[in-house]
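Hi P.,

Sorry for the delay on this. The queue was packed all week, but I finally got your sequence through. Input first:
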Amino acid sequence: MKQVEVGKIKLSNKEDFVLIAGLNVLEDGNTIKEVVEECKQVTEELDIPFIFKASYDKANRSSFDSFRGPGVDEGLDILKKIKVDYRVPVISDVHTSEEIFKASKVLDLLQIPAFLCRQTDLLFSAASTGLPINIKKGQFLSPSEVENIIDKFKHFGNENILLCERGTSFGYKNLIVDMMGLAQLKNYQYPVIFDVTHSLQEPGGGGNITSGRRSYVLDLAKSAMSIGLAGLFLEVHPDPDLAKCDGPCALPLKHLREFLVQIKSIDALVKSFSDIKIN
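Then the structure:
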């Protein structure tokens, strides 16, 4: 079972889960402050390792006029300030080989977006930084196809990778999470992360925007974490109805503590069991 380190945080399917949480995209300063402070306070009180996430640019929005974020330079400056002021590791999406050089100077963990998970040049540039990398499994891929992505990173000499499940396309405007697929991802021995909020999406469900099913966020998170994973990826917002991106999927910030209490209990229980090899 492989272990990946992000600063002082260790991620493994055998260790206590790590929370990767924050905003879908960087918004105004007050919203960012409220989210990062609440996440940090709650995770410290519950003794849950925490990595702050927010995208500086959402390059794959449904509509041309959808909010994308502050952009690479301003966004990285914001993330750098969060990293220093709150002493937390930070993660964001990277979209092109050109921006990876800048991003690698600030981010502790690079994230490959699901739609780009097979882009060889992008994977090469990310691997070349030597940083750990969170690979979002494309909605169009089966667990067995992920092996090809892993092989690319092996070839490029960087196996500090996390495999992140974020739902699989199931007909039009719908995603499902295959629990057996999560178990299959664990078979690769790399840390597996479950992105619960993106798995709740209904792509194109709002016409020119993505809709979602946030009322099921706790049910889906509990189901996935019962398999025994390295981490949970979660987007929160003080008022999801006013969020500038993916609000229909985000957990209201006021529920974060009670949500994590339940997830932590399930994670601890599952990892207290011995594995049984069933052939």
